[in-house]
Amino acid sequence: MPAIGNGFRVEIDVADVRRKMELLGVRLTTNVIRRALLSGARVIRDEARIKAPKRTGALKKAIVAETDRKGSTRDRLVAVVKIAPKSYTVSPKGRAKTVSSKVQKARGKRSVKGEVYPRAYAHLVEFGTRPHAVGKGSRLSKGRAGGAMHPGTPPQPFIRPAYDTKRGEASSKIIATLRQEFQKELTKLGQGTRRKAAS
Fold it and tell me: How far apart are CA 39 and CA 10, in angstroms?
């Protein structure tokens, strides 16, 4: 979940799942917890997509939920809602279409005219911008402006409101998914044990 303000907290009664964890082992338990966290992150992702301002649709498409492999450790698993590092082409009708990862990789970090990169501007949408100088030769220093000026933009928050309104639902979804996934894995485990005993 996004670490905004005081973060996102889900409390799980370990006694309820400890025996199940012991039966499944570390690898399967980790997968179950990862799937549960991801289900909660998707609740917030879906709300953020609804709240994101739409001009081309690229920003909305770029909001993703995933498990954070870098932030996760042996004793801690992390799921995040973030803006994906993808670029999008915009059609003449103003609709965004994802540029394939193969094309992006071949091109490297070069930007291409006519493409948008939501990760570069999502924070400006969320928090707004102050008035600033734009264009060649423009400047804004010590309160004096020179050249073309941009009036700034008001904030249009979409991630924070999604988190604030949906964190309770996300928490419930994580706990429900945990129970459901543990039961599913234990059922599979039981069927495998019965097959071994029968053969």
Answer: 13
Say which DSSP state 119 is in: G
* More confident: 197 or 97: 97
* C-alpha gyration radius of the chain: 23
Look up residue 39 and give its amino acid: S
Give the start-end residues of each E strand in the chain.
63-67, 79-83, 88-90, 96-98, 115-116, 132-133, 139-141, 144-146, 149-150
Q: What is the DSSP letter of 83?
A: E
Percent with pLDDT over 70 in the chain: 71
- Taking residues 94-112, what's their average pLDDT? 66
DSSP percent split of the chain into helix, strand, coil, nearest 5:
50, 15, 35
Q: How far apart are CA 150 and CA 60, in angstroms?
A: 25
In this predicted structure, the answer to whether residue 15 has a pLDDT above a threshold of 90 is no
Which residues does residue 141 pair with via DSSP β-bridges, in sequence order?
A: 144
